[in-house]
Each structure stands twice: as structure tokens, then as C-alpha cells.
Amino acid sequence: MNDSHDDMKSSTNNDDSAIDLNSSEYYFNRELSHLAFNERVLAQALDTSHPLLERLRFLLIFSSNLDEFFEIRVAGIQQRLLFQSELIDIDGMHPKDVLHTISERCHEMITRQYDALNHSLLPALADERILFLTRGMWTQEQGKWIEDYIKREVLPVISPIGLDPAHPFPRLVNKSLNFIVSLEGKDAFGRDTGLAIIPAPRSLPRLVELPQELCDDQTCLVFLSSMIHANAHKLFPGMKVKGCYQFRITRNADLNVNEDAKDLALALRGGLHSRRFGRAVRLEVADNCPEELINFLLQEAGLTKDELYQVNGPVNLHRMMDVMNIVTRSELLYPPMTPAIPRGLGTKDSIFETVSKKDYLLLHPYESFAPVIHFLQEAAKDPNVIAIKQTLYRTGSQSPIVGALVEAARNGKEVTAVVELRARFDEEDNLDLAALLQEAGALVVYGVVGYKTHAKMSLVVRREHEKLTRYIHLGTGNYHAGTARIYTDYSLLSADPQMAEDVHRMFHQLTGMGKTEKIVKVLNAPFNLKEKILELIKHEIQVAKNGGDARIILKANGLTEPKIIQALYKASQAGVSIDLIIRGMCCLRPGIAGISDNIRVRSIIGRFLEHSRVYYFKNANPTIYCSSADLMERNLHRRVETGFPIEKSSMVKRILDELEHYLDDSWQSWILQSDGSYQQQQIDTESSVQQQLLDKLAQ
Fold this sequence. Notes:
The structure is a single chain. The protein is α/β, with parallel strands linked by helices. The protein folds into 3 domains: about 15-25 and about 525-695, Endonuclease Chain A (Endonuclease, Chain A), CATH 3.30.870; about 130-330, Polyphosphate kinase middle domain (polyphosphate kinase like, 2-Layer Sandwich), CATH 3.30.1840.10; about 350-515, Endonuclease, Chain A, CATH 3.30.870.10. It contains 18 helices and 27 strands. The strands form 4 sheets. Strands 14, 18, 19, 20, 21, 23, 24, 25, 26 and 27 form a 10-stranded mixed β-sheet that branches. Strand 19, helix 15 and strand 20 (about 575-580) form a beta-alpha-beta unit. Helix 1 runs antiparallel to helix 2 (about 50-80), helix 14 (about 530-545) runs parallel beside helix 15 (about 560-575) and helix 17 (about 650-665) runs antiparallel to helix 18. The longest helix has about 35 residues, at about 95-125. It is globular, with a radius of gyration of 27 Å. Mean pLDDT is about 90; it is low at about 1-15.
């Protein structure tokens, strides 16, 4: 791709001051943009270029994403209205209008989701001899086995609740599978209220595989919901079950923790329980459920018809993810890959000796995350290492990195861990790993009240030749070995003295108190990261106004920060060529004549989740920063983040070449239009950026 983009229209405006860049017409609503990303994920379920089980995985990821969207985003808007906080964002939409549009779009998408499941994926899986058996499909032998399974595994742990004044409608856990049962007759106590609730125990698998001998060389899977439906009468002896219908309530799952508490960990642990019983935001119910029962459930949940979703299938679709562990058919999955390990970074090499000679840049998952783990594991064992400092945001409950820190602490090294307890939905894991580290003797702090620690950085202090040498790792992604195999992220291993000093000072900011220390190379939110980005955009504007070739490429997960967007609009007006690779939310509206017609926005959706953040400014020095921060208000204002420079010319060229691959992709790219829609560029499989990087980097 040519940097000059000669075919582009120039839109230099001689009267830029006459345009009000605060006007709402220049911005998309962030929640609706977020929803559009989920719609792009849903589209992958129908894309036959993906293997069949991967298509199913995309469908289930969409379901999980939508759950979180309701739990956090929709719940947040409802909360604003509940407390009469009707502050209108820069896009100009009233919260009530946003909720109405969300309801319309979600109803449409969920209809498409179940249509894809029932009419595309399940038939295709059946063709591959993977059957999801409904009650009407069971053979006599299968029915007998299921009846025995229910008696043995299910009935002993189920607690049906008959509804009467002594048994009011229960407090149901967020996203739990439940059944509302319509009954006829009187029970042993003479009660005849006619209604009961069956909560499905969360400990039970939602999918059960039948024995092979009952399935004629096929994989036969049965939903727990089907089993309970078929055997509901056994829970109410002597009464007639007129109907049994599954439903699920989604609740506000955002944690409100009192940050004035003396111990943030104790306050957070206390808040985790309340998350399960937050205010209801959505009711999902079987589409054959009678209207009077639906109205009853809506009333009990405090919801309206706008928040009702009637579905033709399991209400808890994400629990179908179990099929990935049950079905082992490699031909129905992406081909296996082995991430490459650059020479010198293998476990048999001393990583400190290697990194002392030159910096290493890794692109996960194409290149292995193992050297990052090795970096800390070797530090834990090396007698010359005296201190390790580490940030932890999302690491996983069985993290080898946490294991290395525990070993280091037990070996007498000074270990400091900055654990971000408030990483959403990972709070409990982070509380547990913080306790584990403390028990091993590590110093554990929880960052700074009011600011999430989202920076990804490690610092190792090693005694070499009677002096102290520092080694660092900086990354764009979490210290999580599992997600490092499916998220794209950059890692930098370096012994650069100034960058190490910068990282050292950032750790001091996080663990101690005092004024901001001077940090030379590494950018640091909330202090100077946003300001530096604005400064670099302004510099490209000046180059363009002077007749030079100005170019900006920004790759991130989200772009919502108004000042950054306005600066990009001004750059476009000045004639700067701008390419934005934004996977998720994007509030910038491209293609507006005289405003943003020099800006192109694309989203890449594929096998790997695009997670790396890279900022390229052609006329800056350095021209490239990698970062832990997205271009969003929360990252730039309310989080501790890093932006680290890429200074080696070979690394700059490499990243720029990789960015150009993204911009040349015409298979996995979705191009944002000025009306807010995305158009898929499914033209040439050979241009798939992820496949190109697999071929180029992975083994």
C-alpha cells in the first residue's frame, strides 16, 4: 500500500474555524457502536470459510458478549435513568432513545442468532454426525438411559419451589437457568396456587453426552433443559404438569465498591455476592411460553415487554461451549498452529544474557508467549536476581506467571505485585492470587484508588559484575498464557537503561506516594499519554500544512475519546492520510465531506481477537508506540497505562509492514461507513492478514 494515497480526495478546508467539531452529527453513539461489533461477531457464525465448530464458537461468543453488554452497558444506561441522570453524550442521543434502539437491534440480532443455530449450524452438525437430541428424537433405549441419569444425577440436587405466600418468587441468580411450571391439582398440604419454579443447579452440566452404544457411531448430546422438561412431573407427584418453560434473568453485574473503604480487598469480596442479585435488565423465555406466564415473570422481575426476549432454543446458549470439550474432531476446527520462538529465547538459553545483547519484539499468538513466562521463571530461580516487580490485571486462576512470582518470593527475592482487583469478572480470581502471593511473602498492592492499573509491565533487577542491571517486559496484552494463544498482542523484552528507569518510576508511583516523577521514554496515562498523542497528531497536521507527506495509523480496540476524535478530524481537514484499525467501538464518523474524508476505519474479525494497540505517526521520532491503552476516556483518564516506543529501525519496519497487511486485507475487514454501518470486504482469501501472519511467523 502506497503511503501517499494519491487516489484520495484532498479535503483541506480554508475555513476550519467555521465548523463546530462538537456537533453531535459527527459522532456515533458508543453503545450502538459496541452493539455493531457484536453483530460482526454474529456474522462469523454464518461464514462458511470458518470450520464448522469454529462457527458455533462464534455464535456462542456472540451470546456471551451480549450477556455482558446487558449486564454492564444496558444496566448502566438504565441506572442513569433510574437516578434521573439524563446527561447526553457527545453523540446527542438521549438515554431513553439509546435504550429503545438497543432493544430493537438486539431483538433482531437474537432472532438471527437462533435462526442461525436452528437452520444452519445444527443441521450442518447433524450432517457431521453430531446430534443435539430433543425429546421427540429419543429412542426408547436413549429415553431409558436419560431417565436413569435424571434419577441418579439430577433429581437429588434439584429443589423445586411451589409459589405461595410462604414461598414467594425466589431471588434467582444472574443468568441462571430456571423453569416456570404450570400445575393442576392440590398438593399434600392442600395448596393449589398452580405455579412453581425449578432452578437448574449451576453445578450440573448443561450438555450431556449419551453412551456411544446408544448412538450408532454418532455423537449424541442432550440438553439438561430437555431432561428436566421430560421429567418435571416427577418433581410434583400427584399433580398434573400443564406446562414447563425455561427462562433466564440477566441482572446488573457492575460492581460498585466503596473506594473509601480501609481495605479494598475486603470491600470487593463483600460486593461480589451482590453482583449475582443486581437489578434485572433482561428476561429471556422460551417462545412457546403462554402470555400469562410471561407477564407474571415480567412483573416479578420488574421489567417491561421491551426487555423481553422470546427465544427458539436454549436460553443459556453460552453453556453450549461445553461441546468444544466433548467433540474432538480436528477437521471441524482451525488447523493447529505452533507459535514460533525466536532464536535465543528458548528455555535452554539464558534470557538475561540474550536480552542484554538486543531487544526482542514478539507478536502473539503467532510468536510464543513462552519467553515472557520464561523471563519470570528464570528470574525466580536465578541467584543473581534480587527483585521482581510485576503488574497483574487478568492472569488466569492457574497462571504460570503467578507461580513464578510465588517461587521467587519463597526464594527470598523482593517481589512486588500490583494486582488490579477490579478487572471486571476476574475479581474473585485476582483476590485469590493476591492472597496466594501474600502468603508466599510477596508485597502486594492494589494500585491507586480511583484508577485501574491496566499497564502490562515487568521489571527484573539483577546483580551483574558488581552492579545492578534491570530488564523489562512491556506488552499490549494481559499476562495470561491462555488468551495469548487467541489474542493478538505485542511484547517487548529489553534491557534499555532509560526505559527500565521509566518502568521503575512507574512502579514507585503505583506503590508509593508523591508527585509525578519525570518519565523520559515511556508514555504514562493518566499523566501524559493522551497529551502526547494529541501532540503527535498536531505535528502531522503541521507537516501536511507545510506540503509534506503526513500519515497516521492507529490500531486499537476502541476509539471514543472526543478530544482524540476532534484532533483526527482536524488532521483530516489538513490533508493528513489517516487509517484507523478499530476492532470494537468507534465513535468517529468517517467519510464526512470537509471533516473526515481523509479517514478510513476498518475492523478485523477473524480467528484471533485483535487486541494489540499500535500508534504510528510518520513524521515523529519515534514513529511507533505500542500501548496497553485504547483510545477511550477510561483508558486515558481513569487508568494507569503505558505507551512504549519502538526505536529499533528493524522493529519499526516490521510493525509498519504488519500494519500495512491489515490495511490491505480484503477478506476479514469490515469497513465503517459514514452512516454507521459496516461493509464486509470478503473479496480475496489470499489477503487475509491473520493467515498471512500465520504463514510468515508461526511454525
